[in-house]
Design a protein that fits this description.
alpha/beta, Metallo-beta-lactamase, Chain A, six-stranded mixed β-sheet
Length: 288
């Protein structure tokens, strides 16, 4: 019997102002083969839901041998330390993400997020630093292949489960209409182009949105590419009208142009729009 994959949607709330709460969700995944692996650990407290799912699948906590983080943002590693204590699993992340995973206070200083302290309470010791093309073994002839897909963050990775043709993409694929969150516009586009070139992918499992199969896999990735291109064009047009726009004004104008609520025009979105400014300054008027 081949490995089974289960997805867990974890809902959480972020208070972005005294009277404003943002409803968010993130997905974690269980890969249940000869060994059990968890892909991402959600926000703090998510470990309880993950462990309950492991037990419903007829497994014991000790069967979980690895936790692979697609990146170290708080909604993906908040439950990591508690899950490690409960299972004795090895925690793995790309080398570029180690510092933020182990030192959330440093991450909060470098990349402030509203409600950060509610999303992650403690850092997690990293047992293995992953690199592109490495594999995470799950048993005989079963493994996850690491694909370095920077853009959303420097060390973001996707994981290809070759036996089932499933790709776990973390936050690498933007969702049209949702918040465009990435640190490197050129890197994000390049990573999505790489995903399009993969062979044998039959299912995509993003942290944002629902998993998809068949032709919808390519459609999801292409939609993410269009979302990045749309944002790039908005930033280009706004700076074309006023090249002197500062960080906050550019963020506010682009947030409204995307049809997003004005109260979310904060530091995270500003990082995205500044990434497009850098791409434009490097001569990239278009990204596709």
């Amino acid at each position: 019997m081949g490995a089974q994959i289960q997805d867990l949607r974890i809902d959480f709330r972020i208070r972005i102002a005294p009277a404003e709460v943002l409803e968010r969700s993130v997905r974690c995944f269980l890969v249940l083969g000869e060994r059990a692996c968890v892909v991402d650990s959600g926000v703090s407290g998510s470990e309880r839901m993950i462990l309950e799912a492991v037990e419903r699948a007829g497994r014991a906590p000790g069967d979980v041998t690895s936790l692979v983080l697609t990146h170290s943002h708080p909604d993906h590693m908040g439950g990591a330390a508690a899950l490690r204590r409960a299972t004795s699993c090895r925690v793995m992340v790309h080398g570029a993400e180690v510092r933020w995973a182990q030192e959330p206070d440093a991450q909060c200083r470098d990349r402030p997020v509203p409600g950060f302290e509610t999303l992650v309470h403690e850092g997690v010791a990293i047992d293995r630093e992953l690199r592109d093309a490495e594999v995470v073994p799950l048993g005989a002839d079963d493994r996850l292949k690491v694909l370095h897909t920077p853009g959303h963050s420097p060390g973001s990775i996707c994981l290809l489960h070759e036996a089932t043709g499933t790709i776990f993409t973390g936050d690498a694929v933007p969702v049209p209409g949702e918040l465009p969150i990435y640190d490197d516009a050129l890197g994000s586009m390049g990573s999505l182009k790489r995903l399009l070139e993969l062979k044998g992918v039959r299912r995509i499992c993003p942290a944002w949105g629902e998993p998809a199969e068949g032709e919808a896999v390519r459609a999801m990735i292409e939609a993410g590419m269009r979302a990045i291109s749309t944002t790039h064009e908005l930033v280009r047009d706004e700076l074309g009208r006023d090249p002197s726009l500062g960080r906050e004004d550019l963020c506010r104008k682009c947030t409204l142009a995307l049809g997003l609520p004005p109260h979310i025009a904060g530091p995270l979105l500003a990082r995205t729009f500044e990434a497009h400014r850098r791409a434009l300054m490097s001569g990239f008027q278009r990204l596709c």
